[in-house]
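Field notebook, page 214. I keep forgetting to write these up properly, so this time I am using the form the group agreed on. The chain and the ligand, S-adenosyl-L-homocysteine, are recorded exactly as supplied. Prediction of the bound pose follows.
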Amino acid sequence: MDFEALRQVMVETQLIPRGIADQRVLAAFRQVARQEFVPADIRSAAYDDCALPIGDNQTISQPYMVAVMTKLLKLKGLETVLEIGTGSGYQTAILAELCQKVYTVERLAPLSQKAKETINKLGYRNIEFITADGTEGFQKAAPYDAIIVTAACPSIPKPLTEQLKDGGRLVIPVGDTFQQMLTTLTKQGDKFSTFESVACVFVPLVGKYGWKPT
Ligand code: SAH
């Protein structure tokens, strides 16, 4: 399959017509080989307009949703970003194209390991992988210019707002386990402003400040 061609078609048909206009974001999507982050048996669907299973009951998000979340972070290139929910590592690679350093936290060790292997193969050197409960953030490298959570949360975990720089942005799906609103929080001194963009469906964020494990 000509994945390179499929990738350009994905950008032209799924991202640009739906309003993704940030040229840096579009360039990252034209660059990152999404098929490398998808299990081998469903690789032919890598550029389809949907989420796909990646094992351990988790999913790689739909390209458009990854693009919307990335756009909302408004990265310029010099930022340090914290990602919660490494999953396949696809969103991680997109972030690595757009900022200086990414810290990515995943609670399931096998997924983190697999993502790390994929990312190393692709040659990224500005990503650190952490296996832990990301609802507690990652204090060691805080504060962050931007934080992105790629799993659904009942409310915004307090440690994440505390680990955000002044002026920093947090993008997170907030709601119940069936549907969430993609929420952007901006920190201004000791105040926060939030706005909701699109409805979305993510797998649950499981941890101390998220959903309890079942
Ligand atoms: N951005 C990923 C999507 C991953 S799905 C991609 O495009 O592939 C969400 C991920 O969040 C899952 O891998 C899940 O295991 C992880 N997750 C859930 N709760 C978590 C927590 N408390 N800390 C870190 N990761 C968590």
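OBSERVATIONS:
- The pocket of S-adenosyl-L-homocysteine is lined by residues 58-61, 66, 84-85, 87-88, 90-91, 105-108, 111, 133-135, 150-151, 203, 205-207, 210 (CB under 6 Å).
- The longest helix spans residues 109-122.
FOLLOW-UP: compare against the apo run.
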